[in-house]
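Re: your question from the hallway

Yes, I did run it. Sequences:
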Amino acid sequence: MTRTLATGPDIRGPAAGRPRHGRRPERSAPGRHQARAGRAFTAPAMALFLVFTVLPVAGAFGLSFTTYDVLTPPSWAGLANYGRLLEDETFFTTLKNILYYCAMFVPAMIAISLALALALSRRLPGMAIFRTVYFIPVVTSPVAAATVWAWMLNSHYGPINEVLGYFGIPGPAWVGDGSTAMMSIVIVTLWQGVGSNMLIYLAGLQNVPAHLYEAAALDGAGRWRTFLHITWPSLRTTTFFVTTLSLIGAFQLFDQAYVMTKGGPGNTTLTPVYQIYETGFNRLQMGYASAQAFTLFVIIVAVTVINMRVNRDQVPE
Amino acid sequence: MRWTLPGRLAVTTVALLTVVSTGCAPSDDDSSGSGDVVKLTFWGDWSGEGEQQFRTMTDAFNKTHPGIRVEYVVQEDMLTKFLTASTSGQAPDVMFWDRWRTATYAPKNVLEPLDERMKKDGIERERFYGEAVRELSHDGKVYGLPLTVDARALFYNRTHLKEAGVEPPRTWAELEKAAIKLTRREGGKLIRAGLSMDDVGLFSMYLHQAGGQMVTDDCSRTTFNSPQGTQALDLWGRMVRGGVYQTGFETGLGEGTDAFATGKVSMIFTGPWNITTYKKYGKDLDFGIVPPPAGPQGGKASLMGGFGLVIPRAAKQKDAAWEFVKWWTAERANALKWAKASLNIPGNVEAATDPFFTGDPFWKPILDTLEYAKVRPACAGYPPMEDEALIPNLQLFLGGKATAQQALAKSQEQGDRVLAQNNLG
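Structure:
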């Protein structure tokens, strides 16, 4: 769940950057120079993106039509891998699991990171400490954190259920029970991920023009109305950015499921990436794993596009 | 001195290239002085203490074999590395090998068959545990020699058993009774489990004890949905109803917080690798080991596992590699030296039956169990079948979300499909 923050807060709405209709503005000499410099500066990143992202994706697409075990040359298999995928009950289980995970994880991520950002955006002494505290999980190794969490969530001896016990609440079996296992993973991944999205929201909050708040105050708007009519709409692009990245990250859930539950109990936390890893590296069926990976890729693209559409429809024109 | 930006970039690039090119160049500088010494690369994924144990052996070998120099290289992600290395001609000469993977890798022609070399040097298969050699074989050919063997046995907490007044169980009936009697609950909450039932993968052991079989001999279909399978799950069901266990009881507990080491479970089926762990972490733990209890018809069974040494097909120094493998596994003294240094039962039967093991109350029951312990069926589809079809359904059964019949039927239906899809090769 690592991501770059560079493009976050500065994304402008689709309308803002759109060229005016009609006459195409002519580029002045300094403009051309800037464009050239821009290309030069992005070239290294684009080259790396091409070599390490676009090419592997294209390669995986090609391999998905073959039978390939890494050790011997691939042989053409046509659509056999995709045919097998349609009959693979386990793969459908993983898709169902990950959609369930996304449905819990993404809304909770937005709500919690925004709430934290709102709470920490006030200029009070000691805020830097809190920001650091909430950000620390982001720089923790997911595997190490998941190992500790698995112990904390132990049904009988874990500190979480001990604490719940003090209040007379019988804690669930968490990762030991199929009905709460995925929720446990949601909790752990939220803990690990809210820090970075909180930062993005903090940056977004600084971009909300202060005069809007002043106007709202003059009109006698309360806190809730100010949030609903000023803060939330102003953060629309930030929310879109956070939603998109959270969705993409959520679909690729692996570490926590691998460490905490091994996909269990009863396959309730088996995820597509987990299954792709098993198929490719433990069973040496790279062709089939590529077909699974490519299918997941298409699903992620589709979900992202839907997310963009939904977001665009909300633009108040 | 001031650099322009392009100038600085150029300098950095040149510096980087120098580092990269020298870093990648084959470093053959130290072979220049030593004439015709053959260099062997030995890969393994054991680091830390394991690495020290391996180095003990490579040092001993290098000392007695002046013409060969073996070097142990730790590869954390050994198999992935091996996949790419095999195709680019960078394969090691000897590899530390988790034996059950042979069924997946041997058909791909990446491991060197050793039968001819064994015949030439008079190394009979009988020197090793038969099941271990079987696990390293494919289509009648042997692809490696066994380095270690292990088997699951019943570890029990002596103090708990004494308090409850029970003897270490020798039959299923005694196991059931003991497990229920050893369990402690306070206000309905499980405090101490009589028997650890966390690892549902042990089903195959119970099934064999009942006289059943996991798959057909050709590995094409599952055969556990049988009266014997039902007997095994009925035993589990009776123990769960007796309050012995609850799913999630041991989640996240390991090493220092291990449930058996800390007295949270009274009995557990596990392997000899845990003897050292339990001695280390269980300061107040007084434990013993007995072979697994016999099934309803007196059937004895356990799961065998362990490691071997293999020579990749792409190895450059196969003769010297064979020397090393043979020296370490087939020669009693060396097999025993390593066994003592690493506290592993060697695959070499003569070394394993040394008084060091047979005279030790912890190792003896494991050795007795090894007499009849069986490896998992050696076909590529078997591990995925267990992982994907059997284990999830058994977890549902233990969690009370499926009956024994439902769990077995569903496992069979899904398992047959997984076998068919993954045995294709």
